[in-house]
Each structure stands twice: as C-alpha cells, then as structure tokens.
Write a structure and sequence with these properties.
By secondary structure, this protein is an alpha+beta fold. The chain has 4 helices and 4 strands. The longest helix is centred in the middle third of the chain and has 12 residues, at 41-52. It comes from Geobacillus thermocatenulatus.
Length: 86
C-alpha cells in the first residue's frame, strides 16, 4: 500500500479475478485495476512487476476497460487502496 500512497496520480486500486473471489491457486496471477490520472502507465506496470516478485501481475487501468471486464470488477473486485480526499 505504501507504493500506491506514494504515487500521487493513483486514486484507487482494485484487486479482481481469482484472488478477489477467493478461488486462487498457488500459481494464480495478481489482477489489479488502477484508477490512474498520470501519463506513465508503463512505469506503474514496471514497478508493480518488480514489487510482486515471483507472481505474475496483470495491471489494467479504469480508463481503458471494456464493458465485460468493468462488470467483472464491479461484481467481484475488492478495493485495496483508495486515496483520501484532500
């Protein structure tokens, strides 16, 4: 969470997929959807890949979701970080 809090352009992070549903296996990837208002999405993905280490991390951004994924995230997603209002 410290990473997300340290990035001023990250507004919210939602865990989704098998880890959010509680059906993950030992080798399941980590699916994150990020509300990011900055311009360096590649940097966020790169940083998270380094942070999660041996796990695969699939990072999506709210502003680029298709409708099916958006519905899945709304249904099963768990908010793991949300920036406090200033």
């Amino acid at each position: 969470m410290a990473y997300f809090a340290g990035e001023e352009n990250i507004q919210k992070v939602v865990l989704f997929g098998s880890r959010a549903r509680g059906t993950a296996r030992y080798n399941s990837d980590i699916d994150l959807c990020i509300d990011y208002t900055g311009k360096q999405k590649w940097k966020i993905k790169e940083d998270l890949d380094e942070i999660v280490g041996i796990y695969s991390c699939d990072v999506l951004f709210f502003d680029a979701l298709n409708e099916a994924i958006r519905r899945e995230i709304e249904r099963d997603g768990k908010t793991i970080y949300e920036k406090s209002p200033s």
